[in-house]
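User: Before I run my own analysis I want an independent prediction to cross-check against. Here's the chain; please return only the structure tokens and, at the end, one sentence I can use as a sanity check.
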Amino acid sequence: MPYPQTLEENPKIIFFTDFDGTITLKDSNDWLTDNLGFGEKLRKQGNADTLNGTVTFRESFWDMMESVKTPFPDCIRLLCENIKLDPYFKDFYQWSRMNKVPVIVLSSGMTPIIRSLLVHLVGPEAKDIEIVSNEVVDKPGKTKDQEDGWQLKYHDDSGFGHDKSLTIRPYAKHFAARPNEPRPTMLYAGDGVSDLSAARETDLLFAKKGH
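Assistant: Structure tokens:
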């Protein structure tokens, strides 16, 4: 449930999390680029250019996804065959449901891919997980099930394409305006550069080991 509905059951904890490389063992967007797009070498060059400020993450990620010409349904099918879940996430998610801890995925990836992977890897109960991410739309004159028929639709105008902090900030403002109201502990789990702005808005950061 989006804000403010998330607060209706007065959760003691809200768990915000990245998806690729955090909930999954591999980054689905990297897999698409390396195997169906312009390849690992150009992807890593784009990552380096982003880190040194030559391009924005938004520009680099756009180039990565534009290099993938495979019909979108085939992309999802191949990802479901190749992307694996972090071995502890399924148990964690069952615990979160039992203890009424909202899990909110904040991703620089694409909602339909994330939803498909979650349902495939976790089960139908993963349909309840809130996802805030970028979308996928038909290219002009084409459809997503055609070759080179889809493109990104970014979540916002930021240099990330999706500034994850924008989703968390309303919660902080809500409780700042209501100092006498019980406040949940806000947690964030992530593994990359796009997670830094979101982590600053929460109480505790969990960084993926080895990332």
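Sanity check: Residues 71 and 87 are 30 Å apart (CA to CA).
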